[in-house]
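Give me the fold.
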Amino acid sequence: QVQLVESGGGLVQAGGSLRLSCAASGRTISRYAMGWFRQAPGKEREFVAALSSNGGNTGYADSVKGRFTISRDNAKNTVYLQMNSLKPEDTAVYYCASTIPPVYSGTYYTNRENYAYWGQGTQVTVSS
C-alpha cells in the first residue's frame, strides 16, 4: 500500500509559478508510474501530467504542455509538478496518483483508471 500526500498548493497571480510535491510513504515509488490530475468545480477530474515507471518518459495534457513539468526524486520518494506561467483556468484541486505497471517500462498513463493510489489533493487558485 502506498500513501500519497500532496503539498505546495496555494493562491498565485496569473503568470506566477508553483511547485507541487507528492510525498509517498509505505512503499518506494521508484518503480511506480506516476501521474498528476486536477479537478475544477463542476468538472470531471482530468489528466495533467504523467511519468513512466522507468522515469524515461513523460506526458502532458495539451493545455499544460510547455508550462508544467513532472519529475521524481527517488531519494526523497517524492514526485513534483513544477507549474509555470499559471493561468486562471489552471485553478483546481490537484491530485497525485501512482500505480505499479505490469511491466517496468517507458509507458506512462493518462487515464484515471490506470492508477491504484491517490492522494487527497491540494488546492491551486490562480487569480487574474
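Residues 18 and 86 are 8 Å apart (CA to CA).
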